[in-house]
Structures are given as structure tokens and as C-alpha cells.
Write a structure and sequence with these properties.
Layout lengths: L1 H18 L6 H21 L3 H12 L5 H6 L17 E6 L4 E2 L3 H5 L6 E6 L26 H19 L7 H17 L7 H11 L11 H13 L1 H9 L5 H6 L4
Antiparallel strand pairs: 1-2, 1-3
Helix pairs in contact: 2-3, 2-6, 3-8, 3-9, 3-10, 7-8, 8-9
């Protein structure tokens, strides 16, 4: 009997670990540890599904490692409006050693020229959340690297822009307006708890992407975002923190030990 119980425990443990397999990556944990409280705050204030927000930001920013995200704090790749500062064209090197684009002059100087491959990066058209007067310029691209508190504020502003400028009833994109109306009805009927359900988060992602004139027209986009959400256990993470009052560490550790 003891052997059967032990085998069942091992089986459940292995199944959970396999289910949330993306949690084994350190950069994924770091990214979501910083963003999850902000996503939940936005969810509460504006009635948006937080796990979907986190999944989209992970997909769009490469878990915060993409150079546009690192420079601008724009984790959702939101396009700039007319009054916004946007990231200009840049001339930056790809580093073979770290396999990424370098933005910090101090870091660039540490590497031999043969591992650096410079390339002109086109104007991104994405909103730059750096503070004035450097926003929208080629100056201090590494600003957020040395100002983590300001980065956190920028990421929150990005989430808030998504909630107040994109997913609105007055949006000229039908997919966004429909999503807002649908969410409002769902919350009115079932309360905020519906924002922490798997089906709500999946449906929201499918409504705003994967078709023309949406957040991302590529058909595979919703599948990729949902895969990130499922493989990282973002619905369970948000529910644990908001509904079950657990800490990030308690929820994350549950399937990584």
C-alpha cells in the first residue's frame, strides 16, 4: 500500500513538473516574479485576465530579453500613438558570446570586436517608456538596466496603456471592442473570479489575435501565447496569488521542487 501511495505521489509530482515545464528557466521566473503583481493589479482595476497579459508580454518581449523591451520597458510591443515617443532607428551589435543584441556601452567595450556584429535596427514604431528627455532618442539605451524601479513603473504603464487605450469599447478595432464588451458581461455575471479561469484567459487571447486587424494577425500567435500560459502555469499562478493569497515563491515552488 505504501509503495502504491509513493508511486502515485511521484507520478503526480512528475506530471505537474512536466505540465509547467517552462518554470525551470531562471529568466522566465525572474520575468514573471516582477510582472505578476502588476498584472493582477491591472486585472483588478480594469477587469482584464492577468494570465493572458503575462503570456502576451512573455511572447512579445522574449521574457523581457528582447532589445526593444530592454530599452523601452514596452513588454507588450505596443505601438506608439501620435503623441507618444517611439524608439528611433539604432545601430547596435549582436554579440556572439552572449547571443543577444547589446545596448550598454560599458558592456560592449568589454568584448573583442570579432564577436560583435553591428547592424542598423529599423525604427521600431513601439512606444518608448523611458523618461524625458531620453525617451524617443538614441541616448541612454541602457537606462532601465540601472534603474529597476523605473523599469517596473514603465512596465506597469505599458499594461495600463493596453487596458485603457487598446482594449476599450471605443476602439476602432472590432476585436478589441468586442473583447472589452465580452469581459464586462462576464465579470458582471460571475464576478472578478472569472478573470482567473483558464477558459477566460484562452478566449481573450483568441479574440484579440490570430486574425486580420487584431493585436497580431499571425494565425500561430494565439497558440504561442496560450502555450506560454499553460507551460508556465500562469493561470494557476495568478489564482494562487490573488484568490488563495499565496506568495509568488509559494506558488512557483509548488511544481518546481
Amino acid at each position: 500500500m505504501k509503495k502504491i501511495v509513493l508511486l502515485l505521489l511521484i507520478s503526480v509530482s512528475f506530471s505537474s513538473a512536466n505540465e509547467f515545464s517552462y518554470r525551470k528557466y531562471t529568466h522566465v521566473k525572474k520575468f514573471y516574479k516582477e510582472l505578476t503583481p502588476q498584472a493582477i493589479k491591472i486585472a483588478t482595476k480594469y477587469h482584464l485576465p492577468p494570465a493572458a497579459l503575462l503570456a502576451i508580454s512573455g511572447l512579445e518581449s522574449g521574457y523581457g530579453r528582447g532589445y526593444v523591451s530592454r530599452i523601452t520597458g514596452n513588454v507588450m510591443s505596443l505601438g506608439a500613438f501620435r503623441s507618444d515617443h517611439e524608439l528611433p532607428p539604432l545601430f547596435l551589435p549582436w554579440c556572439d558570446t552572449h547571443e543577444k543584441i547589446l545596448i550598454d556601452p560599458k558592456e560592449i567595450k568589454k568584448h573583442p570586436k570579432e564577436v560583435l556584429h553591428y547592424k542598423k535596427r529599423d525604427k521600431s514604431l513601439k512606444r518608448d517608456y523611458r523618461p524625458a528627455p531620453i525617451a524617443g532618442t538614441c541616448n541612454e539605451l541602457e537606462y532601465f538596466k540601472y534603474h529597476p524601479k523605473e523599469l517596473s513603473k514603465a512596465q506597469y504603464r505599458c499594461f495600463e496603456d493596453f487596458a485603457t487605450r487598446w482594449i476599450t469599447k471605443s476602439s476602432n478595432k472590432k476585436a478589441f471592442a468586442d473583447a472589452r464588451i465580452w469581459l464586462d458581461k462576464a465579470v458582471k455575471k460571475d464576478g472578478e473570479k472569472v478573470l482567473y479561469e483558464q477558459s477566460t484567459n484562452e478566449q481573450f487571447i483568441k479574440m484579440i489575435g490570430g486574425h486580420p486587424d487584431s493585436f497580431n494577425y499571425r494565425k500561430k500567435w494565439p497558440k504561442k501565447a496560450i502555450q506560454i500560459m499553460n507551460k508556465t502555469g500562469l493561470v494557476q499562478l495568478c489564482k494562487d496569488i490573488y484568490v488563495n493569497k499565496k506568495t509568488f515563491t509559494q506558488s512557483w515552488r509548488k511544481t518546481t521542487n
